[in-house]
Amino acid sequence: MRKIVAGKLHGIHVTEANLNYHGSITLDPDHCEAAGILPMEFVEIWNKNSGAKISTYVILGERGSRCCILNGAAARTCQPDDQIIVCSSIYLDEAHITSLKPRIVTFDQDNHILDRLSYSVDLDADGRYSFSILDESHEALAIPALVSGRDSRRTSERVSPPGCNSPIPEERT
Length: 173
Description:
This protein is mainly β. 4% of the residues lie in helices and 41% in strands. β8 (103-107) and β9 form a beta hairpin. The radius of gyration is 18 Å and the shape is globular.
């Protein structure tokens, strides 16, 4: 069994840090449902502003509130307006990796959902893995994917990787 990403709230902004609550992270149920995250589920949290990494459990806040509240000790790691990643995971036998389709949700500054993405792992005829990030219409995005109008070029468009001066050559068929 391996620990695999099951769902992710990517780039959600902290709305409050409540040191005096018992612990946990309080999230809008709409956001949790979009990513497949359950109440009481343990999640990992990565703060994109500070680099802090913590683990806690999810409690549901008010539906439609767009809240993201760090409670108790977790409140020491994040400040309001910090951008974080909330990631749930699942233990899975490697033989079932191609059946898992983790849901990834991205956010704007006000915690409105921008993108609903999914991850996909497939095996080729030689048994080698491939990885794709898919948009809502199941179109593969370029990896690393820049989404929400910033740079949503599809994999069919060849672009230079960061730090490279020449474009990726066309694949030979």
